[in-house]
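Q: Protein A?
A:
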Amino acid sequence: MAMTRTPRLITRVGLIFAVALIIVAQRFGRDPTSGTVLFPILFKLAIVLGAVAGVAGTFLQLVRWRQGKGAQRRAEATLLLCYVALLLSGVVYFLATKTGAGWIGMDDLSAKGARKYDVVMTITAALLAAIAVIPAILMEFTVGEWTSENDEDAVELRRVREMGLSGLTIAFALALLMVTCNVAREKNIKKDVSYLKTSQPGESTRKVVGAMSDPVRVLLFFPELNEVGGEVKGYFQELARQTKNKVAVESHDRMLSVTLARKYQVGKDGTVVVVRGADAKEKFEKFELDTDMEKHRKRDGKLRVLDQTVNTALMKILREKRKAYLTVGHGEINDPESLPPHLRAQLPDAKTQVIKNILTSLNYESKNLGTMDGLASQIPDDATFVMVLGPKQAFDATELNTLARYLDNGGNVLIAMDPEGDFRLGPLEGRLGAGLGELRPGQDVRIGLVTDDKNFLPQRQNESDRQKALTNQFSSHASTTSLSRGDARNGILLESAGALTDREFTTPGEKPKRTYVIRTMGEAWLDYDQDFKPGPDEKRDRYNVGAAIEGPARKNADGTDADGFRAMLFSDQDLFADHMIQTRTGQIYVETNGRSLPVDAIKWLGGEETISGIVNDEKDPEIKQTKREQAAWFTATTIIAPLCMFGAGMLLGRPKRRRTPPAAKKEVSP
């Protein structure tokens, strides 16, 4: 005989309706800042309806438990426990209110005690609700219906309890997150997990601090409890720890420390003053940061490059400003205006703003060096080094001889050649022991462009991209310190590069030391006929692209010992030219193909290789989305995706019900 069962749908709707009403009332019925009820009547109505639905669902579940037998009864008992726990959470929530607290004598607590009581009771009610609702929902969709009192096997008790335990695990995980968030809020612990990250002290910055004989004072002028000030203070505290407390960090309010602010010319909040020495020998440098953290979250936020900013300030107080001379008048990439109009139309417009910015950050003053400035007669005595950057036209013999004499007198030179230009080293080859192109006896120098069909940057999507070769073959020389450590995995781009080959040293006495610091990959070849394919006379090999040459010690005119020259030679001008780089997210910035090469090369030429190293930055590509896209992603990740996963799990995990066939009618014999 079939039994009348309470429909499962009623208990499911009662459970979900009760929980939904209470959540909606708590989420949208109160002001988020003050916590006051916005619509008192609707709020109370929602709470009452939720309570009635919860009680009704529990009563109906009690009826089902009473009607069940055997395994069915035990499964329904497990569900009944969840409903009872939900009612208990409602009771605890009621006790958290003023009326409920008065019932148990908790209405005369102090403000602090009342707040703690409210937090404890509210969290307890939420935990009980999570522990009750999540397992109940999973088990409700697992139990299913039965139609016969003999159909005891229609309910799989083990499956029901396993689903309940799974839901209980999820509830406990949510409870842990809830408690953790509350403790973090009470202890004022905050962790920023957004895409903004303040750069940490880099290797070069630590070396600069270590090279100073005097300790460094850092004065921070930020408002109290300012988030940006906290980030900057944390950076300098870490720098002090890594340099064995050679950095002293002080926090000041410019309105209170008026004398100090006037001394260091601090006129606004967010100023950082770096001081070295004291009294007459004191030197200081300052820079400013915006005190609004939201502005630093942008792509060009200064906190991302804080280490670079600090490194620049430290270099300015480490020593006096030096001078770097850049040759002009031959179509150099730093002087494209010197090219004839017909050549300028054929050649791409190159710039060297990045190099000039690097010189400024390293406390150098860049000056032009033309024929009338001493290039045809004598290099100025105050020159720390001379840079020859990609001249398209040949130098006069007098200009090359001037550079040769400058090297003989211990000067420093950096030369980046354009293999497609007319510039040649001439007498400098004998001083440097290297030249551009392959030199064969009785033949003209053959100059080919580095080409690689295995390691290249695809831009035009044709065979010409093979001459945009990539390489990560760097030596451990001081001029390529950062390349060999930081960029070895990514490599650098060799765009229209030639090859350096050995030349005989022609200077008498001890020979200079020559080190090739950059090579191509082993799959590269020199393309002489511009067909972008390796021919019979174009073998694959590792070709030299950059060289560092150090001359032997010498004697001054007065007989004292002096250091020899330092020179760097490159067969690719684009290692020092500006290039617009665009990321996949659309971010555009200017950089050289050499990445960190120009910085370390300049430091080595200036005899400052001891402070070479990586300077940290956090220029993460910023992903920009409209408000509509943000809302769509939020809805998809927090609502749609979990519901789809839940529905798929319920659909695939739903047990197949088998119905007991109706009993056959017995024939009664007459």
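Q: Protein B?
A:
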Amino acid sequence: MKKTIAALLAALMLIISPPCRNVYASGETTEESVKPAVSQTPSSEPKNNLELTAKAAALMNAQTGQIVYALNAQEQLPEASITKVMTMLLIFEAIDAGKLTLDETVTCSEYAASMGGSQIWLEPGETMTVHELIKAALVGSANDACVALGEHLAGSNEAFVSMMNDRAEQLGMINTFYLNCTGLDAEGHVTSAQDIAIASAELLKHEAVLNYTRIWMDTLRGGALQLTNTNKLIKQYNGAIGLKTGTTSQAGCCIAAAAQRDGMTMIAVILGAPNSKSRFADAKKLLDYGFANWELTDISGIQPELPDIPVTGGLEKQVGAFVQMEGKVLTEKGKGKDITVKVELPESLEAPVALGQPIGTVRLSLGSETVGEFDILSDRDAPKVTFGAAMRELWKGIVGA
């Protein structure tokens, strides 16, 4: 009891005569080798020359969002019908949010029916379900179907295009500006290979999209209209799951190609290839490079030892620390064993400290590169000592005696 009362009296003295400065030192760090792999931060240009024919290209791991191969990946270029990746992202987000249903009926407007390029020849006033129009857009690249869906969701084509630009900004697609939802050539309608990869990875989070992007052949209007997928990789490449091709006179031949092997999904974006054969060949090279050189590893088994941290000016003398490290990370094949873990914690904390408050960092490194960071969190509250709180604790100590 004497020790308890002495500690509380000391706390009261801190309130009466607070310390002249905060103590928040960098603290010690510890390093240890671990086997789970993490991704290397890639350079903006490719380390290996794959001899692509395209003007620009990007290869992204869909799970981590990491670009592992880039060729002019930030250059603003037209994208043709790959625009429909963003169009479909908004549609599937609306479905998941309950704003649309697949069996909902859409009526084609005069404007939607007037679209040129790839189409299913919708007539003004003709109706189709959301499901049918998605199939037309993703398998047959139908421009009229995209506009009909956009108008139905947003109220007008202009409002839908505005939604597309807003979503691109939210996703950090800094080189993208949409003027339509179809990809038809328009001055100022631009994007970049990296931005397309970002939108593609976001679309793939909606697994229902694969019910359409993996279709090779199908029909509409009771079998009267045949659809054949414009993405030949669906038939030609092991693990191909989508996503979208595009071709116009300004954009050249383009593709956002996604493939999955051993639980890892890679997205290859090709812009401005000279012909259709070249875009597919370039996409295959990128995907082959990705699957041959990169792998995913579960890091949830990493459990660094974390000490308790002293707390000054608090009712608690110290707080425990914990870190939540889950998921999978990307690394070059065979380099996972070289990863190191660095724990960065202060020597002390000043009250108040809240349960779950970030108090430090676990940093994962591969060579000189930081490849992952996780917050270290407090495992309890440590309220600041106030006169009233100290008196209550003092009284508890006396009564408890």
